[in-house]
Amino acid sequence: MADTTTPTRRAAVPSVTIAPSGLVSLDRLSRTPMDRVHHGDVPLSASPPPGARRSSFDAPVPLPAPRGPVSAALIDLLSGHPAADIDLDRLRWTGCPAEAPTDDDLQLALWVSYEQHYRGLAGVDDGWEWHPGLVSARRGWEQQLLDGLRNELGEPPCDGQRFSTGREAVQAALNTMASADDEPSLSKFLMRQASSCQFGEFLVHRSIYHLKEADPHTWAVPRLSGSVKAAMVTIQADEYGGGALPAMHAQLFRSLLVDWDLHDTYGYYLDHVPGVTLMATNLISLFGLHRRWRGALVGHLAMFEMTSSVPNSRYARGHRRLGGGEDAAQFFDEHVVADSVHDQIALHDLAGGLALDEPALADDIVFGARCAAYADAAFARYVFDCWGAGVSSLRRPVEVCPESHRE
Ligand SMILES: [Fe+2]
Ligand SMILES: [Fe+2]
Fold first, then answer.
1. Could you read off the pLDDT of 195-217 as tens digits, one per residue?
2. Ligand nearest to the CA of residue 253, numbered in listed order
3. Would you state the CATH architecture of domain 17-53+165-406?
4. How far is the CA of 111 from the centre of ligand 1 (A)?
5. 138-165 in b/e burial notation, b at 16+ Cβ within 10 A?
6. Calpha distance 400→261 (Å, rounded)
7. Per residue in 89-101, pLDDT tens?
């Protein structure tokens, strides 16, 4: 394990060119070193340096810097007492649907409001969690995100196949989505070409989800029954390490962050990541917190599991290529093994089982899976756009790791 207390310099960032063929080439040096580039004017979080905290306890997340009028109004409200009246006009997001899934202001407002249901927010009264005014405002943001997702996704593709049951249709749709080999592939880039800085940025983005890995999908458990619940619990039990802390996937990810000299504090990088990264977790929280969206939640998890094993094997190779530690690679290796089993459970017993039990949810299951695929693709597009332009994909670049340790 590297020394986690000494700030170090990183290599200049190679930029990325995406050819019309979809192949990614790395053919020139960055015009602008990432550590001089800022996407946003975000203050540094007042958190301890890497290595200063090695507890598995997740403290409530400090309120982040606002990113627009809605998140500013929300953060201002949460800093006060929940009995205060709410001016709902201040919490109304006025962007257009096409921007909703990636809008920084809207996605931060959603993330902050959802976090009250997870580890909580530092200095924020728990009485805000179910404050009627705040719940009402969030319902508006959720509807805008859903409208935006439908706008982006369009109608489900129709391949002309006829199915006798909703279960067959769901499984066929999920299989088609999971086997789509869209280029350019972020996982292939990370495996073959990414610099240590880029790989570290990838981990920073993913820390927002992986440090609470499995929690958003676990909302489904009390909403399901019978064999479908059993399938969900089988998957989630592995995600939580079968009850063994060192094997919990969130804990494995924490070890990975430490190996890369990154902060492993829950929510530490909230100010660093863009709206498209927050959206990936927000939409699971949205599906999870509404029983009405249990079908979408199941579809989302199924697509997660069905598209995890191969990318994780590529991440593992990228991690090792860049000098990452063997112990830390366990996060990726575990997903390669576990998700090659989970994908079958997710397809047949979970998504297929729910479509069989509740045929009316078939469209929602597919919608949730499409949202998962969309979030993944939108994130990859964003990252490639940034790296292709020679800039950081983070709102505020971070120190990643010593060159001597990685390259
Ligand atoms: Fe996992
Ligand atoms: Fe899994």
1. 999 999 999 999 999 999 999 99
2. 1
3. Up-down Bundle (1.20)
4. 21
5. beebbebbbebbeebeeeeeeeeeeeee
6. 6
7. 999 999 999 999 9
